């Protein structure tokens, strides 16, 4: 606890366990932002592989292979967190992704080498969110819990306003190798920022990977929602750069409005929206993402690209953080890592595995028709979730 009881009391009034917990929350947020800046190189990896001369189908493999290490690491994140503790597990994740992104500077033009680098990159991505979310939520009290979890998650989209426009300039002026070398630095800095965090005692070691023991039947629709929302987000962030290049529209026209909308929703609007049931919030999020895909299907000017970005920002704001807080609220301490692994696994299946078959969809139907197909899928799942009675309070005991 802090040496100043009044500071601790003020922090608890704001929703934190104590004054030091408030500081730790923000240090964890800064590290998450830095890590996300590194991983946002994925928005330009298609362009990098195009410059290396790979055909679209091979690029789809190099993009999609990330899913295997992401999912393997995510599935094991509950177990690893129990063994290492949340802080050390997060450090390990940042180191893996920094190594994976940085090594691509030397391997991006070789198929096997690029595969290895992408797998290393993915292992870090898959491991980070489980322990980081578990640590961050341990710094909070029930007061303002959903709002603070949602505000924390804005660090991830904030990186999308920073990394793609800067990465595009680095790529165009200094080349592919410079893109990946500079991209690895922020994740390494994230380790330095979090070296002083108080350790969170590891939970009791879960059976197996922890994910199976944490699974509940009511998780089915939330998991499907996360997969669908992740696939919609992944479709745009993976294949938007070459699509916009055809119309000579800079990436900033999409990512900057998207980030402004996302942060405004998570930090400002969620103060009021957090009182609504997560079921309705997530369904609304899928509708927003579907509108983004519908808009981008016909976007040939910067204005429509910006409109699509705003819709995606609003929609994605009500996806991962809401589900993380919803499922995490009803988890026991021993199951916390497993529950966060469920949430991350479902979202990552959509973001990282879907781009592989999406490359076939784009090859057969084109980017615009593929976007409309993804929008239709989102609306269907949104209707199913909104019309359901799923509610985790049944498992609260």
Q: Based on the structure, what is the oligomeric state of the protein chains?
A: single chain
Order of helices and strands: HHHHHHHHHHHHHHHHHHHH
Question: How would a crystallographer describe the biggest sheet?
Answer: none
Tally of individual domains? 1
Tell me roughly what share of residues is in helical segments. Answer: over 70%
Can you give the mean pLDDT? 82
Number of strands: 0
Structure annotation, total helices: 20
Gap between N and C termini = 30 Å
The gross shape turns out to be: globular
* Highest-level CATH class: Mainly Alpha
Secondary-structure content class: mainly alpha
Strand percentage: under 5%
Radius of gyration: 20 Å
Name given to the CATH architecture: Up-down Bundle
Q: Can you tell me the CATH topology? A: Growth Hormone, Chain: A
Low-confidence blocks of residues: none
**By CATH's scheme, which homologous superfamily applies?**
MFS general substrate transporter like domains
How would you describe this protein?
The structure is a single chain. This protein is mainly α. It has one domain: Growth Hormone, Chain: A, CATH 1.20.1250. It has 20 helices and no strands. Helix 5 packs antiparallel against helix 18 and helix 10 runs antiparallel to helix 11. The chain is globular and about 60 Å long. The two termini are 30 Å apart. 60% of the residues are buried. The mean pLDDT is 82.
TL;DR?
The protein is about 80% helix and about 0% strand.
């Amino acid at each position: 606890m802090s040496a100043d009881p009044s500071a601790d009391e003020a922090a608890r009034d704001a929703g934190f366990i104590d004054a030091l917990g408030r500081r730790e929350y923000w240090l964890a947020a800064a590290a998450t932002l830095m890590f996300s800046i590194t991983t946002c190189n994925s928005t330009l990896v298609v362009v990098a592989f195009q410059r290396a001369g790979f055909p679209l189908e091979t690029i789809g493999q190099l993009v999609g292979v990330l899913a295997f290490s992401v999912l393997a690491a995510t599935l094991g994140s509950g177990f690893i967190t129990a063994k290492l503790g949340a802080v050390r597990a997060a450090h390990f994740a940042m180191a893996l992704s920094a190594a994976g992104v940085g090594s691509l500077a030397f391997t991006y033009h070789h198929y096997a080498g690029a595969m290895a680098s992408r797998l290393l990159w993915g292992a870090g991505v898959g491991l980070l969110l489980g322990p980081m979310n578990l640590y961050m939520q341990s710094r909070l009290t029930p007061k303002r819990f959903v709002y603070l979890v949602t505000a924390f998650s804005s660090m991830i989209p904030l990186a999308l306003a920073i990394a793609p426009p800067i990465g595009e300039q680095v790529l165009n002026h200094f080349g592919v190798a410079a893109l990946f070398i500079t991209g690895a630095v922020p994740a390494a800095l994230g380790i330095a920022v979090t070296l002083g965090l108080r350790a969170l005692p590891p939970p009791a070691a879960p059976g197996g990977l922890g994910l199976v023991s944490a699974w509940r039947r009511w998780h089915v629709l939330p998991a499907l929602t996360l997969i669908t929302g992740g696939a919609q987000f992944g479709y745009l962030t993976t294949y938007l750069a070459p699509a916009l290049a055809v119309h000579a529209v800079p990436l900033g026209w999409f990512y900057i409005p998207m980030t402004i909308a996302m942060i405004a929703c998570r930090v400002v609007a969620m103060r009021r929206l957090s009182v609504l049931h997560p079921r309705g919030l997530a369904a609304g999020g899928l509708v927003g993402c579907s509108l983004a895909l519908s808009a981008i299907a016909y976007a040939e000017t910067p204005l429509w690209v910006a409109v699509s970005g705003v819709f995606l920002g609003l929609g994605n704001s009500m996806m991962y953080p809401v589900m993380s807080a919803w499922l995490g609220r009803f988890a026991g301490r021993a199951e916390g890592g497993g529950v966060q692994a469920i949430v991350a696994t479902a979202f990552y299946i959509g973001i990282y595995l879907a781009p592989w078959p999406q490359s076939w969809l784009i090859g057969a139907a084109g980017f615009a028709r593929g976007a409309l197909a993804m929008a239709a899928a989102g609306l269907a799942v949104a209707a199913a979730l909104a019309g359901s009675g799923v509610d985790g309070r049944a498992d609260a005991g």
